[in-house]
Specification:
Blueprint lengths: L3 H21 L8 H8 L3 H7 L3 H23 L6 H16 L2 H15 L1 H25 L8 H21 L3 H18 L2
Helix pairs in contact: 1-2, 1-4, 1-6, 4-5, 4-6, 4-7, 5-7, 5-9, 6-7, 6-8, 7-8, 8-9
C-alpha cells in the first residue's frame, strides 16, 4: 500500500506530465486548469493542493523539460575529446533537443512570456549556464581558448545561444535556422583561440 507521501508525489508527477503535454501543444494560453486535471486524472482541487496557479505549474514543467535536456546533453558528451569540438557538439545537441515543437513551445516561445524574461533567463541559466561556464573553463584550462574573464564570456555566449534558440523557435524550420546560428557560434569559438 502506497504511503501518503508516495501518493502525493505520484499526483504531482501526473499533474506535471499532463501539463507538459498540454503546454507543449496547444500551449500555455490555450490550456486551462480543468484540462490539466482531466489529462492527469485528478480532481481540480488536487492541482490547487500542489500548485497555486497555472504559472506555477508551468514553472515546474519548464524545470522538468530543461533538466531532461541537460541530462541528455551530459550523457551525450564523450570525455577526453577536444574541448572546443565538445562545446560545439553540445551546442548542436542543445538545438537538436529544442527542435521538437512541444519543447520549443515550452522553453523558447512560452517560457520567456509566462515566466517573464528575467526569471526565464535565470532558470535557463541555472540549467544551461552552468554547462556553458564549465565548458569554457575546461577550454581555457586545456589551452584551447585564451584566458579571459570566465563569467562575462559565459554570459555573452549563453545570451547568444538563448537569443538564437528563441529566433529558431519562431521560424518555420527550426533546424534550418539553427544551422546558420551554429556556423556563427563555430566562428566565435574559433576566434577565442
Amino acid at each position: 500500500m502506497a504511503t501518503q507521501e508516495e501518493r502525493r508525489t505520484a499526483t504531482r508527477t501526473a499533474i506535471i506530465n499532463a501539463a507538459q503535454k498540454l503546454f507543449g501543444a496547444p500551449g500555455f494560453d490555450e490550456t486551462k486548469i480543468d484540462d490539466i486535471a482531466a489529462k492527469a486524472g485528478v480532481a481540480k482541487g488536487a492541482i490547487y493542493h500542489h500548485f497555486k496557479n497555472k504559472n506555477e505549474i508551468f514553472e515546474a514543467v519548464f524545470e522538468q523539460v530543461s533538466a531532461e535536456i541537460v541530462e541528455n546533453m551530459i550523457r551525450d558528451v564523450e570525455p577526453g575529446g577536444d574541448t572546443l569540438e565538445t562545446l560545439m557538439h553540445s551546442m548542436k545537441r542543445f538545438f537538436d533537443l529544442c527542435t521538437p515543437a512541444q519543447v520549443s513551445r515550452i522553453l523558447l516561445l512560452d517560457g520567456p512570456v509566462v515566466l517573464g524574461h528575467a526569471d526565464w533567463q535565470r532558470l535557463d541559466a541555472r540549467h544551461f549556464g552552468g554547462l556553458v561556464t564549465l565548458a569554457l573553463k575546461e577550454a581555457m584550462d586545456a589551452g584551447a581558448i585564451r584566458r579571459q574573464p570566465l563569467e562575462p564570456l559565459s554570459r555573452v555566449l549563453l545570451g547568444g545561444i538563448q537569443a538564437a534558440a528563441i529566433d529558431c523557435a519562431a521560424q518555420k524550420d527550426f533546424e534550418e535556422a539553427a544551422k546558420s546560428y551554429l556556423n556563427v557560434f563555430k566562428g566565435i569559438l574559433h576566434a577565442l583561440r
